[in-house]
Amino acid sequence: xxxxxxxxxxxxxxxxxxxxxxxxxxxxxxxxxxxxxxxxxxxxxxxxxxxxxxxxxxxxxxxxxxxxxxxxxxxxxxxxxxxxxxxxxxxxxxxxxxxxxxxxxxxxxxxxxxxxxxxxxxxxxxxxxxxxxxxxxxxxxxxxxxxxxxxxxxxxxxxxxxxxxxxxxxxxxxxxxxxxxxxxxxxxxxxxxxxxxxxxxxxxxxxxxxxxxxxxxxxxxxxxxxxxxxxxxxxxxxxxxxxxxxxxxx
Amino acid sequence: xxxxxxxxxxxxxxxxxxxxxxxxxxxxxxxxxxxxxxxxxxxxxxxxxxxxxxxxxxxxxxxxxxxxxxxxxxxxxxxxxxxxxxxxxxxxxxxxxxxxxxxxxxxxxxxxxxxxxxxxxxxxxxxxxxxxxxxxxxxxxxxxxxxxxxxxxxxxxxxxxxxxxxxxxxxxxxxxxxxxxxxxxxxxxxxxxxxxxxxxxxxxxxxxxxxxxxxxxxxxxxxxxxxxxxxxxxxxxxxxxxxxxxxxxx
Lengths: 250, 250
What we know:
Two copies of one chain form a homodimer. In chain A, the strands form two sheets. Chain A has a six-stranded mixed β-sheet with strand order 6-7-10-8-9-11, sandwiched between helices. A five-stranded parallel β-sheet of chain A has the order 3-2-4-1-5, sandwiched between helices. Chain A has helices spanning 20-28, 40-43, 66-78, 97-106, 119-127, 156-159, 175-184, 211-221; strands at 4-9, 31-34, 51-54, 82-87, 111-114, 139-144, 164-169, 192-197, 205-210, 227-231, 246-249. Chain A folds into two domains: 4-114, Tetrapyrrole methylase, N-terminal domain (Cobalt-precorrin-4 Transmethylase, domain 1, 3-Layer(aba) Sandwich), CATH 3.40.1010.10; 119-249, Methyltransferase, Cobalt-precorrin-4 Transmethylase, Domain 2, CATH 3.30.950.10. Chain A is of the alpha/beta class. In chain A, helix 6 links the parallel strand 6 (139-144) and strand 7. In chain A, helix 3 crosses helix 4.
């Protein structure tokens, strides 16, 4: 039988923030090709005898370049396997799922894409931060804080405009550059901000405060693990949710 | 026992794009307070003897103003009920969940927020459109096409900038205004775009083409139901997914 590849969003990390469709596909897969961002709790939901292939993709640990991941998916499908390519969050939000989808289409391999709860939504829900809010934030912008040859190549003039909430993925190391870029284009240094670590998992931690102070205090606060930075007036509209949380103010 | 309110993202409509956490809470709820955007397939997952309260919120059918919904949630919780406030998509992305959370916090009612797959992610996955894509779109912007007293009050200068994907919620009736605003601020009229109806459900339909042509053809194409508009060069990077789809080109 011909193989099939599912590009599946694994959500933010908590097993119960997986979709029912993702859970079913994990239970049926012959092979799971997974990232570093996919948590153990999610991997535990895979068919017990499924083959597991770790392809890395943490910053320091590029186990396999993207092109080799693409070719691996094609090869597995051609062996007639039912492949789940499991990604943290959503496959099409900073997940390079587009490149995998294009390769599969080019090579004539059948595939489907299964959306997932992306980190910003999970972080915000658990922190009680409305990403959009009447009269405060009518635009929600997702950006990556990854650098291109050491430089943060962002359109700061657009990002600094009022009335929006910024959700910045993978931005920990570039926070000082980000602060400089945003404030030099007019964003007030006191704009409410929250830095959220291990968002959407039971270990979520949060540091909240005016952007400039938060950036100054962050190095002493971070404990490692994926982090998301949320910036905008909507952060000040947060309502304390009832689940136990680790929140620091600065 | 004290009541509890869960603000729950019901996802895009397909029952299996609900999260496991949302499914569990629906099975445990005493009362479900739900919107028009929540599909029947999702409502069918609720505890059979749960009370169901429909609070409308389609454009033409404001059954209950937001303030009354807020008060209803407080009242039900004070009766000791386990309340699920079920919303289409994600509670904090154009869902007015922030206002409900603030009211609950103000009134001392315990609550939690459960994220969901927002429409843009589901539409893009099913259409094969990468919302971010290397070298093409590094920013993803969510906007609402709702008007304020008949005017589309958007920051077109920011939205027209290159290198981003725009996902426009609830924008069907304001598409001509949107086109005018974007193109007059420099967005090429031929920018690739897709209009997606009933996204993330088995009935997803899609119209794809250069923005100006798409806006011209849309009135004859729409069949009703919620729609999402995606604009940006990333739309041209779409790879045809294998699931059966209804795609028209213009």
